[in-house]
């Protein structure tokens, strides 16, 4: 099983939209394996991106605290993507959940193993920004940590902190591979292209060769609770996500 | 097939092209200045003197044709001809080219007189047939070249003479656009196109002629501050430009008057101050017999003309027919766009003196004759590629002469033809020794090219088979089979020649060696031709493949639509989109083209939208960026094409030979001048070690 955790040190870079759109792109790929996504972000927004609009329903957080399993929180999209939302949780439940995952660094890994999904499944994990117990869980379970950056100076400044965090987390998962993906790239903006060049120099082949272009269609698709690939298949962002999906499938994470 | 082509290709491949084009301009100097004046002497203007020269030349040609020198005499004659040609070729001018062509013709006449008279007549049966066929092939080739030279001296198709726009010395131009009988919409489009014509604005004035006096047109012209008049004579009398361009809007294409029209055509006026008129065949100023030319060349329907103001009648109110009759007899050019080569260069059909039926007719007949010779070229080529086999395999001698006699006749003939051909290539030339060195290098280059081609292509059956399968066209397939058959036939000929020489089958060794060398050169030429064909195929394939680039068009409100280019790197890009796009013709936006994960963003203007196909033009300001992308896309790998020989293939010996050639004389000189030092035993040991 390939487990990809989508992380970043900075908020608002588009982790959730990348997770949901990448999941859709992977599901639409001709050689698509089983796709599953889990939301570890207390904002509980991933299911919204995937077309589920229920509010106040329990999710991963609730079932974890109440001795349930991930399968209890499972939702299934039209494209057969398995979605495990964070779910509604009051403050106390959230604190309990965070204590639980702090005490059991490999909780998520074991939960995913218990799901007994097919070997070729790709499991995407959406996380909240910055270092947190959620990020530690995601890194502990993942084969690949996909760091989302914006092509701006603020994101560029977070790269050293991210590198330090990876070094600190080596004991959790010594075999973890890391890659950085640029979101909202604007080829018409000089600043954006300059940052891209600087990141290429700094990260070399760890920078994913496909950047997600800044496209209004992504935002419009969210308003319609659709994947951008369904909302506007001819948009540049759709093609970028398709290419990113192909890149993910071709990765050798063994 | 020209060995120089192989050399040129190799030089391009290894970035050594500058050596190939290191050409000298024609030299000056007192003697040359004096010689240069001769062709332009006023004496040649007299009809009687011209007649005497022509008659004397013809008599001389007949005399030379009937002359039969002994061997020594022939060598002296040949040497004299070559020396004269090499001296005269340094003087520029078309008359000198004509002189060189005459010398070549003289030598050709002498050669063919000898060849057809003495080397064929005594033969019979198969030997006669071979000899006659080879002789005829030689005559065909000679004819083909001579027609080419005549075309060079009085060309029909010409590149335009582009002129820079930053020169203040350019003539001022009045553009008179006749919009009478043209729909207002079309007229407005043509007026807009006229305003975009590239020419310094200070020297450019547009006049709109509209006999119907339509208010909409007048309003539009006033808005652009363009002069609006009722008739042609008013426009001509009001204007003051040195040149007047007359255009009929009704007969222009949808694409409108090209921006570069003046830039391309006015060069002929600046070159020739006596030129009065330049016209397209259907313009009312066109002189007869345009219909005859039209029937031969299939001309366009544009009605454009450029006339020099000084050549117009003094009375400004002259009618069109009065202007036409006044211009009759002036120096005039018939010009038509034959086809566009690139954005800034077109090939024009240009006929000087189109009013002379004899000139036009003779040009047409010459073109027909050249086309006919080109059509029969494969038979001629086949004869040259099989002639040595006649001797080596079947024992038939196609050239019944002594090798010395043949060499003394053919060498000046070939040398003079080469000089005339080099002369017709352009206004620059290689120096004599450089030319000879290049010629030898071209001949030598067939060897490493053939070797490299054998190693990379023929020795790899799988690659050869794949290439063979990939040839879609039947013609290609047949051509390849024919070339490989001829190649193996010539290789067989070489083996037979070696056999004859090695085992003494023939008492005389000169002809077997000659024919063996001929067959060897044939085989190398054929393989080198294959190498060039492969290069052309690869370039074609590569260009087609790279013409399709992935990209996206920026749409309003931050949206984008993915697209694919069809004709990259044209500045007028045709783009295929997956769905119809909401852009209008004339709107500006941006296109992002991707190459190796790098995005190139270029401003564009939409020209036309036809379903899923969209034609856009790349903004001129972005041309450096676009050129950069084009260079990146079309950059070829360092090991491509593999069948061209390596970087130092122009040096026939290994590198250490050249190093030794440089070091040994220096060391020898050092030894001789420092003898006492080297006489010491330890120094001798040291030298030995070196």
Q: Strand count, sense and closure of the main sheet of chain B? A: 9 strands, mixed
- For this entry, what is the oligomeric state of its chains? heterodimer
Which spans of chain A have pLDDT < 50 for at least 5 consecutive residues?
Answer: none
Please give the largest β-sheet of chain A: 7 strands, mixed
**Rg for CA atoms of chain A:** 17 Å
Name the helicity range of chain B: 40-55%
Strand order of the largest sheet of chain A: 3-4-2-5-1-6-7
Summed over residues and divided by their number, the pLDDT of chain A gives a mean of 88
Overview of the molecule:
The complex is a heterodimer of chains A (254) and B (690). The longest helix of chain A is centred in the last third of the chain and has 15 residues. Helix content of chain A is 43%, strand content 14%. Chain A is globular, with a radius of gyration of 17 Å. Chain A has a seven-stranded mixed sheet, sandwiched between helices. Chain A has 254 residues and is α/β, with parallel strands linked by helices. Chain A is built from twelve helices and seven strands. The mean pLDDT of chain A is 88. In chain A, strand 3 and strand 4 form a beta hairpin. Chain B has 690 residues and is α+β, with helices and mostly antiparallel strands. Helix content of chain B is 54%, strand content 14%. Chain B has 24 helices and 15 strands. In chain B, the strands form two sheets. In chain B, strands 1-9-8-6-7-5-2-3-4 form a nine-stranded mixed sheet. In chain B, strands 10-11-12-15-14-13 form a six-stranded antiparallel β-barrel. In chain B, helix 8 links the parallel strand 2 and strand 3. In chain B, helix 6 runs antiparallel to helix 7 and helix 15 runs parallel beside helix 19. Chain B is globular, with a radius of gyration of 32 Å.
